[in-house]
UniProtKB/TrEMBL annotation:
Top-level taxon in the UniProt lineage: Bacteria
Ranges for domain ArsA/GET3 Anion-transporting ATPase-like: 22-182
Record's protein name: ArsA family ATPase
InterPro entries named among the record's database cross-references: ArsA/GET3_ATPase-like, ATPase_ArsA/GET3, P-loop_NTPase
PANTHER family according to UniProt: ANION TRANSPORTER ATPASE-RELATED (PTHR10803:SF26), ARSENICAL PUMP-DRIVING ATPASE ARSENITE-TRANSLOCATING ATPASE (PTHR10803)
């Protein structure tokens, strides 16, 4: 059970949360590793240490609301009332869940007059893009994070990201948006809109006319006109989209941001954690540490699996104490599991020896309330 590699540095969670220079903590990791619970526990611990904290979840699951004792979450921060702490240091905890369409609507309203906003909202292409377009959720996550930080109402913003590798897709949002804006198809559609709207599609000369006739056959004139109107309406906003996304991206690279990679001691989860860590280093994002969640332990650590099995076999051969023999076998299985988890964890620490690690032991029951979150928070802090 003793690791074969040097122990990694310990992640000081309390110091990270208490540091006034830490303004954003981003929790990323694969699905099913307790990432949402970790984000909520960090938020609660920070609030009870005296910081005004908001937890933003991009995960559409409702676990965060349930664990915080709220019936639901939406695009507006909701205060969690039952936050403890000494009177002198008691902070506040708020939570919210990203609504990408509502966030997109807010951006449109903020950067266009009422008439143009109504035209955009009524356009079928906008309705599709704001609800289902690939990458919209990640881009709007960047928008919402930027809004929260710009408002300067929070000491600490904790972001709970979607599962799997899409957890880092919001890092790519500015680049994806730039490719979309600079794409040949969009430029062709935007050019006629800039010089006359739908009427230009009736021009019968040049390459543009040829393109328009071809597109009209595919989409139909009315649909093509709606697409042109949509592109034209959003044209004045595209530069602002890219600028704000780039600003948020740079914000994520500052020392005031801390990324925590959350994993369970399972091969796939640790493999994903290594991917996240490498990607964060590539992007010059501040990697604060690894949270190794749901780690099992044994009470009688000096009793090896081999010794437990041998003792169980002796008892069974003598026909004595079958209950004790069964307990010994259960112990042997648990020791084997703990050893396997240790070997899996070492795959990460061996390739990332300087990344601090916080270990959270397996909880005796599912976390579904503030008391459970406090236990997780205490475990994160090494208590």
């Amino acid at each position: 059970m003793t690791p074969t590699t040097a122990k990694p540095p310990v992640l000081d969670v309390d110091a990270l949360l208490a540091d006034p220079h830490t303004r954003i903590v981003v929790c990323c990791g694969s699905g099913g590793v307790g990432k949402t619970t970790t984000a909520a526990a960090l938020g609660l611990r920070a609030a009870e240490a005296g910081r005004r904290t908001v937890v933003l979840t991009i995960d559409p699951a409702r676990r965060l609301a349930q664990s915080l004792g709220l019936t639901e979450l939406d695009n507006t921060p909701r205060r969690v009332s039952d936050v403890d702490g000494e009177d002198a240091v008691k902070g506040e905890l708020h939570a919210m869940m990203l609504d990408m369409k509502r966030t997109f609507d807010e951006v449109v309203l903020a950067h266009s007059d009422g008439k143009k906003a109504e035209e955009i909202f009524a356009n079928p292409f906008y309705q599709a893009m704001s609800s289902t377009f690939s990458g919209t959720q990640e881009y709007m996550a960047m928008e919402k994070l930027g809004q929260l930080r710009e408002a300067n109402e929070w000491d600490l913003i904790i972001v709970d990201t979607p599962p799997s590798r899409s957890a880092l897709d919001f890092l790519d949002a500015p680049q994806h948006l730039a490719k979309f804006l600079d794409g040949r198809m969009l430029r062709i559609l935007l050019a006629p809109a800039r010089v006359g709207g739908r009427g230009v599609f009736r021009i019968a000369t040049g390459a543009l006319s040829f393109f328009s006739r071809a597109m009209s056959k595919i989409l139909g004139g009315e649909l093509l006109g709606e697409l042109s109107t949509f592109v034209s309406a959003l044209d004045s906003m595209f530069g602002g989209f890219r600028q704000r996304a780039d600003e948020t991206y740079r914000l994520l690279q500052t020392p005031g941001t801390a990324f925590l990679v959350v994993a369970a001691p399972q091969p796939d989860a640790v493999r994903e954690a290594a991917y996240f860590a490498d990607r964060l280093v590539e992007e010059n994002m501040p990697l604060a540490g690894l949270v190794l969640n749901r780690v099992d332990q044994v009470a009688a650590g000096d009793l090896t699996a081999e010794q437990a099995i041998a003792a169980a076999q002796q008892l069974e051969a003598a026909g004595e104490s079958p209950t004790t023999a069964e307990v010994l076998r259960v112990h042997a299985d648990l020791v084997a599991l703990v050893n396997a988890q240790s070997r899996v964890a070492e795959r990460f620490t061996a390739s990332h020896p300087n990344v601090p690690v916080a270990t959270v032991r397996t909880q005796p029951e599912d976390v579904h309330d503030l008391a459970g979150l406090r236990r997780v928070g205490a475990a994160l802090a090494g208590e």
